[in-house]
Amino acid sequence: MSYTFTPRYHEIDGQGVMFYMWYLGHVAEAVDAFFADRALPHRDWPGLGFDVHAVHLDLDFHAGIRSRDVAEVLISTSRIGGKSFTLDFAFRRDGEAVCSGGVVYAAVSPEGHGTIALPDVLVEALRG
Which of 64-90 are b and which e, b meaning 16 or more Cβ less than 10 Å from the residue's Cβ? Predict the structure, then answer.
């Protein structure tokens, strides 16, 4: 799944590249689109008895995204466990990889009762 964006003015630092924190903001947007594309939008999760929390993040920077660049974030499932899963991401600009990494998410009860097993509906969406 691919999510495309152009950095907004306030996302660019004095060196002319996107601030580090905005990469994670765009990952969050891409993950939201990933699940919506798989017919499991985030807004439905509490009603289905689950939510997820990010518990670990890895980012590797290769080059910067600059003002007016058209960039895309590619999202893919790399691991499905019993209570957690990992989504890998890659930022590309003009076909060049500029940042890559992964996010580990743990399934949790929306009532705050801790981690739970990955629901079948979520596993189906992750498998695509």
Answer: bbeeebebbbbbebeeeeeebbbbebb
C-alpha pair distances (Å), 105 with each of 8, 15, 72, 73, 121 = 27, 32, 22, 18, 15
Model pTM above 0.85:
yes
Residue type, 80: I
Residue 113 has pLDDT above 90, yes or no: no
Q: Which residue's entry shows tokens 């739970």?
A: 116
* Ramachandran angles phi, psi of 36, nearest 5°: -60, -40
Average pLDDT, the chain: 96
